[in-house]
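Quick start: read one record
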Amino acid sequence: MTRQDAALPMTGEPGRPPRESGRGPGRPTRDQIAQRNRELLDTALDLFLERGFEGTTIEAIIDALGMSRRTVYARYGDKITLFKAALQRAIDDWVVPAERLRAAETEDLEETLLGIARLMVANVRTPSGMRLARIANAEVFRMPEIADYLWQGTAQVALAYLGDLFRRRLSPATADDAALAFLLLVVEGAFQTKVWHRMADAELDRQVVYRTRLFLNGAVTAG
């Protein structure tokens, strides 16, 4: 196959003779390819959410996006790999980076924990956070591999930071237990309360404050 006959990325259509610069006149740029890939992952995740993992085919994703079959299969190979890549995009949009959590630290531990809790609770309420919660509720019990993937990509990031914080500010011996307790009681608990009870933002924040103080009092006593 000559370079003139090579298929253009994302279209599967024959390419035109390249320019002297080496890039054909209709060939997408690197930024365009990256944008097209983001569209693929967003479309895939939307369909997985709408139809479930089992009810979604790669062909349906391809049809919805109008992308070439060869491009999708060459990039991801199979449905589970595409599913993980789509989840990773949502995770990247959702996870609060450790440096942002660290920026919330102050000399007062309660104030620090309230700042961290508010950041994390706000983030799980974003569209990306809600999509991940829906995926978790729909798939993790049937697909342990996905449950582990989501745990590693989301909770473990927060636990690593929180464990370090509690080793520095509470007790090294109980830091990891405290990190998990804080995540489940304050962040996950407040989020689930919001979802199930549809409470107002002011009430949600009151819950965050109450749960944070409850956690801190227990952690200090247990430590």
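Confidence is low (pLDDT under 50) at residues 1-21.
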